[in-house]
């Protein structure tokens, strides 16, 4: 009975999700019901041998959940769905038919790690992808985040900015905005140490601002001195702090050496 | 993975040895002792270890294990079992069931070698009782390794591994630990050869828990390495990292285990971008590993990773490394990469990467090397900043083969912020001004110095701790000290008396 109810709910969810524009609210309620159903059927975190057909359905539901949470801009929910999916992608990889949504989902996860600046996690995840290394550069869903990361690390920020529109799937764009925020802060911190002063106009182009008011607001946040009449931003110098001699540390180290030497002699 | 490579080279040697042995069999065989004798001697050593409660003897047995392993055959095992167990022992029967019975043809072939063995060994005195259980496990270990040598027996080796593990755990003898650790290695190997390595994971995890509860350090060290290797084999860096953070590697573990552990740690840390930690771990792995000649596979694998990590840290590895006889060939591709990074040329880097892609992928270093791209750029910028006091962004862009001037500006800005170079950009004029060199004698120098001193002191303390003294030898010294003390007493007495004399003399004045 439970599986019958699940099947109807699943069909309804598919309909609601595929409709353009998809009905987010309805999807949400359906997903919640479906998850309860999955738990009752023991399919949410499958253990041992389960019916393959059921597993495929469960995976589909979770994948829709992933996309839904991004459309609904709910990152914690994205995390949950993704970690639930992970079992299907790794442990059941050999028995289940491959899903065409797998790599979009994995790519989304990579981008998310990138926007949260979790570079170490990004690389461990990348390393555990079930792809040979050369396919990383050919799979469009994976290539996108990988390229973004490379450019971010190099400092080719303009390339990242230009890649905004090249997202391979609709959902990727959600992350782009927060990524841009990250980039802007990165650039700003670079500018603080690399320039003494910068004309307002150039600063706007460097930081990808289209209007001056946006730039001024941003400058205020970062505490830059803006000279409106001369059209200049001056960066306060941070490097001239006096380097203090770490006295206590030195004393402690010397005492430790003395003690050790005494033991030796 | 290093172990596999070690095996690969081992196997080649194996084959060579086999051939050698065949040829040796034609010629009259002279000592060194036959494997059968060696096994017998080893079992005697194990017994002694258990009677004296001195695990050192067991370790000595295990040290000779690798060389012994290569010389083992069905017959050797059969003979060893026959010789060491009394006639109607149950253990003997169960052991013999794993060794194929002697086919008549083989026996007739062995005829000409048989006299030589009987000449060298006087007819062995049949033991009246079973030797210690450790000896049984030791023989089982030999059998498992022997089963690894041919494809048909892989499934059999998994069966015997299971049986052996069950036996070990039910007996629960601390004196068995060193051998047990070796058995776990053999178990892993059986699984790897015979099927899926992942299938063995639950068993290893369970055994690891038991071992840590029993404070069984040898087994624990061996099992942690088995697990890590399994995780890394399937690229499960997350799980591996969690395992490392949840377990403590036993301090008393042997050097080879430590070397492996450090290598795995280095790998994990490198993937997580923690290059400094990776570097220290790999260095430890190199220091603790057996010499290049005995384990070339491991030595090469560690150095491959080491070179990459060093590059990622922004250092250029020593050139002499690439001329090392064991490494020269294996590191060829890596040498090309180092050259590309050193010159800071992106195009050369890219072409080298494409040329050797297959090898890097096999070594599982490809993704790490791809990360070097930014280092190539950084090295390029650093070279420019050292040689020019002022350079236009356009020239930087041309020299480093960057795509646009705009990119160059961002990249230089990032390099300045990350502290790669000292300098600043003058945007209006479109050039970069390079500042002087950093003052090298800041507090960092103290820290580095302190770390080195700490290392030396630690080394000294460790060596003092590692010194061994023969048992009861201090008694003699005590006796000597007793004598000395008595002499001293006498001396003191005399002096005192003398003093008194003096005092008297003084008093007379």
TrEMBL record, chain A:
InterPro entries for the chain: 26S_Psome_Rpn12, CSN8_PSD8_EIF3K, PCI_dom
A Pfam family that the UniProt record links to this protein: CSN8_PSD8_EIF3K
Keywords associated with the record: Proteasome
GO CC terms in record: cytosol; nucleus; proteasome regulatory particle, lid subcomplex
Origin species: Rhizopogon vesiculosus
Record-given protein name: PCI domain-containing protein
Family: Belongs to the proteasome subunit S14 family.
Domain PCI: residue ranges: 76-252
UniProt-listed Gene3D superfamilies: 1.25.40.990
GO biological process: proteasome-mediated ubiquitin-dependent protein catabolic process
TrEMBL record, chain B:
Keyword line: Proteasome
Entry annotated with the keyword Cell wall biogenesis/degradation: no
PROSITE patterns, A to Z: PCI (PS50250)
Annotated ranges, domain PCI: 259-439
Pfam family for this entry, one: TPR_PSMD3_N
GO CC terms in record: proteasome regulatory particle, lid subcomplex
Keyword Hydrolase tagged: no
Region (Disordered): 1-39, 101-132, 480-509
Gene Ontology molecular function, alphabetical: enzyme regulator activity
Annotated Acidic residues bias: 497-509
InterPro entries according to UniProt: CSN3, PCI_dom, PSMD3_C, TPR-like_helical_dom_sf, TPR_PSMD3_N, WH_DNA-bd_sf
Bias kind Basic and acidic residues: ranges: 1-28, 480-496
Superkingdom to which the source organism belongs: Eukaryota
GO biological process: regulation of protein catabolic process; ubiquitin-dependent protein catabolic process
Homology family: Belongs to the proteasome subunit S3 family.
Stated name of the protein: PCI domain-containing protein
Upper classification of the organism: Eukaryota, Fungi, Dikarya, Basidiomycota, Agaricomycotina
């Amino acid at each position: 009975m439970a599986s019958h109810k699940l099947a109807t709910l699943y069909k309804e969810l598919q309909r609601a999700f595929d409709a353009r524009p998809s009905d987010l609210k309805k999807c949400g309620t359906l997903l919640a019901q479906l998850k309860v159903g999955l738990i009752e059927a023991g399919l949410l975190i499958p253990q041992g041998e389960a019916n393959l057909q059921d597993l495929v359905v469960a995976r589909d539901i979770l994948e829709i959940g992933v996309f839904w949470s991004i459309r609904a801009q709910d990152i914690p929910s994205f995390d949950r769905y993704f970690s639930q999916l992970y079992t299907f992608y790794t442990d059941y990889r050999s028995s289940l038919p491959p899903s065409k949504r797998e790599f979009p989902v994995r790519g989304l996860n990579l981008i998310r790690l990138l926007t949260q600046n979790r570079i170490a996690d990004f690389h461990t995840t990348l390393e555990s992808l079930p792809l040979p290394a050369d396919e990383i550069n050919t799979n469009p869903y994976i290539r996108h985040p990988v390229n973004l990361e490379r450019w971010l690390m190099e400092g080719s920020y303009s390339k990242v900015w230009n890649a905004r529109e090249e997202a391979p799937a609709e959902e990727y764009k959600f992350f782009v905005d927060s990524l841009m925020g990250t980039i802007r802060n990165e650039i700003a911190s670079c500018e603080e140490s690399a320039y003494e002063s910068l004309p307002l106009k150039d600063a706007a182009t460097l930081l990808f601002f289209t209007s001056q008011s946006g730039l001024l607001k941003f400058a205020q946040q970062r505490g830059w001195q803006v000279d409106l009449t001369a059209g200049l931003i001056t960066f306060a110098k941070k490097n001239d702090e006096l380097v203090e001699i770490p006295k206590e540390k030195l004393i402690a180290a010397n005492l430790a050496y003395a003690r050790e030497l005494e033991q030796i002699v | 993975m290093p172990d596999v490579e070690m095996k690969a080279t081992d196997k080649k040697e194996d084959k060579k040895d086999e051939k050698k042995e065949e040829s040796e069999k034609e010629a009259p065989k002279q000592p060194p002792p036959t494997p059968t004798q060696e096994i017998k001697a080893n079992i005697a050593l194990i017994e002694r270890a258990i009677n004296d409660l001195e695990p050192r003897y067991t370790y000595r047995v295990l040290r000779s294990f690798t060389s012994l392993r290569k010389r083992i055959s069905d017959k050797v095992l059969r003979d060893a079992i026959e010789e060491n167990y009394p006639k109607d022992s149950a253990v003997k029967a169960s052991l013999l069931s794993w060794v194929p019975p002697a086919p008549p043809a083989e026996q007739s072939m062995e005829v000409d070698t048989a006299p030589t063995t009987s000449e060298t060994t006087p007819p062995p005195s049949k033991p009246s009782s079973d030797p210690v259980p450790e000896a049984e496990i030791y023989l089982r270990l030999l059998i498992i390794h022997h089963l690894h040598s041919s494809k048909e027996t892989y499934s059999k080796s998994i069966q015997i591994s299971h049986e052996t593990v069950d036996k070990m755990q039910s007996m629960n003898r601390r004196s068995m630990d060193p051998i047990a650790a070796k058995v776990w290695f053999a178990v892993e190997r059986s699984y790897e050869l015979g099927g899926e390595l992942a299938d063995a994971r639950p068993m290893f995890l369970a055994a690891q828990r038991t071992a840590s509860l029993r404070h069984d350090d040898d087994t624990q060290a061996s099992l942690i390495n088995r697990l890590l290797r399994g995780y890394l084999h399937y690229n499960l860096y997350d799980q591996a990292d969690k395992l490392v953070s949840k377990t403590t590697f036993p301090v008393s573990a042997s050097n080879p285990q430590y070397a492996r552990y450090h290598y795995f740690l280095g790998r994990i840390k490198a993937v997580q971008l923690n290059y400094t930690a990776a570097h220290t771990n790999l260095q430890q792995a190199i220091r603790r590993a057996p010499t290049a000649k005995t384990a070339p596979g491991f030595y090469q694998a560690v150095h491959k990773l080491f070179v990459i990590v060093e590059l990622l840290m922004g250092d250029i590895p020593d050139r002499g490394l690439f001329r090392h006889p064991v490494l020269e060939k294996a590191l060829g591709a890596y040498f090309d990469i180092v050259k590309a990074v050193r010159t800071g040329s992106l195009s050369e880097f890219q072409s080298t990467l494409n040329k050797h892609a297959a090898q890097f992928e096999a070594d599982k270093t490809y993704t790490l090397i791809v990360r070097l791209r930014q280092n190539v750029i950084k090295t390029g910028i650093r070279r420019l900043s050292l040689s020019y006091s002022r350079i236009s962004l356009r020239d930087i862009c041309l020299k480093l083969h960057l795509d646009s001037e705009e990119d160059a500006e961002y990249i230089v800005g990032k390099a300045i912020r990350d502290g790669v170079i000292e300098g600043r950009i003058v945007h209006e004029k479109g050039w970069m001004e390079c500042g002087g060199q950093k003052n090298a004698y800041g507090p960092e120098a103290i820290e580095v110095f302190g770390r080195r001193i700490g290392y030396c002191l630690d080394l000294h303390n460790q060596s003092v701790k590692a010194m061994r003294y023969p048992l009861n030898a201090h008694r003699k010294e005590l006796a000597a000290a007793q004598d000395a003390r008595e002499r001293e007493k006498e001396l003191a007495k005399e002096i005192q008396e003398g003093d008194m004399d003096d005092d008297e003399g003084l008093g007379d004045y």
